[in-house]
UniProtKB/TrEMBL annotation:
Molybdate binds at residues 36, 64, 164, 182. Gene3D superfamilies: Periplasmic binding protein-like II. Pfam families: SBP_bac_11. This is Molybdate-binding protein. GO terms for molecular function: metal ion binding; molybdate ion binding. Belongs to the bacterial solute-binding protein ModA family.
Amino acid sequence: MTRRGVALVVVGMLLVAGCSANGSDGRVLDVSAAASLSKTFTAIADEFERQHDGVDVRLSFDGSSTLANQIRQGAPADVFASADQRNMSKLGELAVDPEIFATNTLVIVTAPGNPKNVRSLADLTKPGITTVVCQVAQPCGAATDTVVRRTGITIDAVSEEQSVSAVLTKVATGQADAGVVYVTDARAAGDQVTTVNDPAFATVVNDYPIAVIADADDHELASQFRDLVLGEDGRRILRDAGFGVP
């Protein structure tokens, strides 16, 4: 055997050993989920891996519109969880039997202690208050736009972000006085922000659908993940995070 042949054999043995050391049999499940699901789906993925020895759940979080476009363009995804039905619908037949697993509503977040004394949606129009929102293409932005149109209140946002987590970050880091995010994101942020509700938000509810992707590498494994989200364990995790559960 040539030195090159020996080297390839050694490399192969090392790779096998590495996989064994990691306790993985090579089964990877790619899950794309809305940014507002970061905390809950990380917990659900941990539970799934605990129940499925040797499986690695690879999570991708971003705005639902961004993820849907990536999946349509061929990005690896076995399961997709969207923050609204509109972006799930973009996938057409690529999304197999979407099912609603959670609901969410909006809320205002401000710097801790609410130094600008924001008390309602209308206060976001006051001079000297900088506000960030999501892009309308994203579910959080579409929901914000619906609330704004229904109330007749115009928010002159200083920026429109690609995901709800980006809005939250700008407020938590002092780059903006206020932002419109989901109730669940505000809860997850804890004392990094102060939460301000407005009755108008209750009229706009986002439904979160989940679906197996038609060309998933392992349909059975992807279906099992979807079932975990829809089942009692998934519902408990989602409920504890503040999501509404159908």
